[in-house]
Amino acid sequence: MTRTDDMTGTDRTSMRSDLCGRIDSGDVGRRVAVCGWIDRRREHSEHLAFVDLRDHSGVLQCVVDGARELRAEFVVRVTGTVRQRPEGTANPALPTGEVELQDCEVELLSRADPAPFPLDERTEVDETLRLRHRYVDLRKPRMQRNLRARAALNRAIRRAMDAQGFVEVETPMLIASTPEGARDFVVPSRKEPGSFYALPQSPQIFKQLTMVGGVDRYYQIARCLRDEDLRADRQFEFTQLDVEASFATRDDVLGFVTRAVAEATEEVTGEAAAVGESGTFDRITWQDAMERFGSDKPDTRFDMELRELTTIFAETQARVFMAPCVKGICLTGGAESLARSRVDELVALCQSWGAKGLAWMRVVAAEAGEEAPTGSQAGAPDSSQSAALEGGVSKFLSPSEAAAVIAALAAQPGDMVFLVADERRLVRQVLGLLRLELGRPPVNDGSFNYLWVVDFPLFEAVASDGSPIPSHHPFTMPHQDDLTSLMSPDGPPAGEDLLQVRSQAYDLVLNGWELGSGSVRIHRRDVQQRIFEMLGIAPDEAHKRFGFLLDAFRYGAPPHAGFAVGLDRLAALLAGEENIREVIAFPKTQSGADPLTDSPSPIADAHLRELGLRVLPPA
Questions:
Q1: In 3D, which of 435, 389, 414, 437 has the Cα closest to residue 335?
Q2: Is the four-CA dihedral 156, 159, 163, 165 of positive or negative sign?
């Protein structure tokens, strides 16, 4: 049961005494006035009709005399007396199903054309049509629940941050363009033709400046914009809980954010999130996450972890396993549940992800001491019954290799094992995706497995010119144990050695979705300048782009750390939705269009001239 009701005190207004969904048997005999939309009308007799009246709280049945002119989605005010429904006519599916209104007076407030699509939850409606008429779509109970869940989420977060001594500070929406990993949306300046503002990808620099300014603990429910391709968990515009704290370590920030997210989870779902004795959610290092789950945002609601098999094949004669890394996963019951056609689909999927192929084998029972079936290799015959591998590439394995694979994967008869051999990064990536393909539960399964991922690498890759690509943003403090080598007078590590440098960065993950990222920030001018140099940002360019931040560090910057939680994603998961568009009042489509306002759209030539802009003809 969710706790998403945003009504406090009375529901009364000048036009209504009650909300439709709040009337029950305790109100029998009371005269009430309710307002809303006609959900449907059912003829009861020549003169009487049952009219279901709907508002955001629910539906109430009204017995109306002379209702022939009333149509679905007409807006009305109904005054009537609450009575118990006749015996045998109660509707247990409705909270108001035991009562109805009689002796009704109906005031028509607004007529309505037929709705562009049914408003029941059973009918599938094209998303573009839904978004074109979003004001109608929002009337659905599902959308009403989601928006109120989101409001409850924001309310709980503000309460938790206030209780922890954080100050809500608003940061500007028109800023200078800064590199934060995605393209900026830009705004032309009328006062300075040819110059542009950027819309913020995040309040990153400004929240760091609030730390230099002595605010100590900052938070904001911030609107951010990034010009990047859209998908189920991404929009151009998004909202995040933005947090920054002075004289704070990573563990302090993990505690602050854990409390806010845990309280918001309980507020929305009615269930407490699992928090450890340390006061934070469980944590895992980035390295362990990649080795065990093949992902830096692991879904820990199910097992099927990646197992290391490289040493088993160190002396192998099977060419398919002669590779720097071999890992495998085991699908419980897969030998019986997966048809051969499905296995072929999985092989093709892995190839599309970059693998040369996918090795698979069924696990079968073999009596101890008897010969393994043709095309298989038996495990160690030390019990009355042992497992064997059958089918796929099993014929290429030696008996000892087969036994070791079965043991390493804890495989049982009836299971299916999958192996990938290649470079370690590719093996982890492919098996991580395969793991999700085979075992990921639905989003709305009711479980919420929060997980902190810590100790990310400072750089995720090295570009062709030798410059590193940061895993997070360029303001992340390197791990203390790696800082000395990074700041060496002889220069920082180079090439692949750079990828071993860790950062004090951390992500919050929920059910395989990345909710947000944070880090201990660089507060030392010399460290920040070294990172800029490594990223190929020359001193003059660094000063041009970030001079205000670097200058601020000259005047006493406290050590500080922060985080940002994507509230669209968190709200979607808590509401059991697969797509964040279902918890946003007016979202864009996946193509970035807004069918409601028909945007983006051209602007008038006069406006272009005023801004000093000229639009090129279409290519």
A1: 414
A2: positive
Digit-coded pLDDT (tens) for 392-406: 999 999 999 999 999
Q: Contact at 8 Å (CB) between 171 and 207?
A: yes
Q: What is the pLDDT of residues 494-521, one digit of tens each?
A: 877 888 899 999 999 999 999 999 999 9
Helix, strand counts (H, E) of the chain: 15, 23
pLDDT in tens, 290-317: 999 999 999 999 999 999 999 999 999 9
Q: Do 160 and 219 contact (CB within 8 A), yes or no?
A: no
Residue 81, both tokens: 């007396």
- Answer whether 450's CB lies under 8 Å from 489's CB: no
Six-digit token string for 274: 């699992």
Which pLDDT does position 421 carry in this prediction? 98
3 state SS for 470-515:
ECCCCCECECHHHHHHHCCCCCCCCHHHHHHCEECEEEEEECCEEE
Sequence-distant (≥ 6) Cβ neighbours of residue 92 within 8 angstroms: none
The model's pTM:
0.90
**Beta strands 58-65 and 75-84, pairing class:** unpaired
Residue type, 149: A
- pLDDT (tens digit, 9 = 90+) per residue, 411-466? 999 999 999 999 999 999 999 999 999 999 999 898 999 999 999 999 988 887 77
Other Cβ atoms less than 10 A from the Cβ of 104: the count is 21
Structure-block tokens of residue 286: 């980035």
Q: What is the DSSP string of 104-135?
A: EEEEEEE--PPPSS--SSSS---HHHHHHTHH
Residue found under tokens 């009650």:
18
Mean per-residue pLDDT for 565-589? 96
Residue 558's alpha-carbon distances to 218, 524, 554, in angstroms, are: 14, 9, 11
The answer to whether the CB of 35 falls within 8 A of the CB of 15 is: yes
- Per the DSSP assignment, residues forming a β-bridge with 203 are none
331: pLDDT strictly greater than 60? yes
Structure tokens at 530: 């070294």
Q: What angle do CA 161, 149, 130 make, to 5 degrees?
A: 135
Helix axis angle for 141-163 and 250-269, nearest 10°, is: 140
Cβ atoms of residues 124 and 117 within 8 Å:
no
Residue of 298, 243, 355 whose CA lies nearest to 512: 298
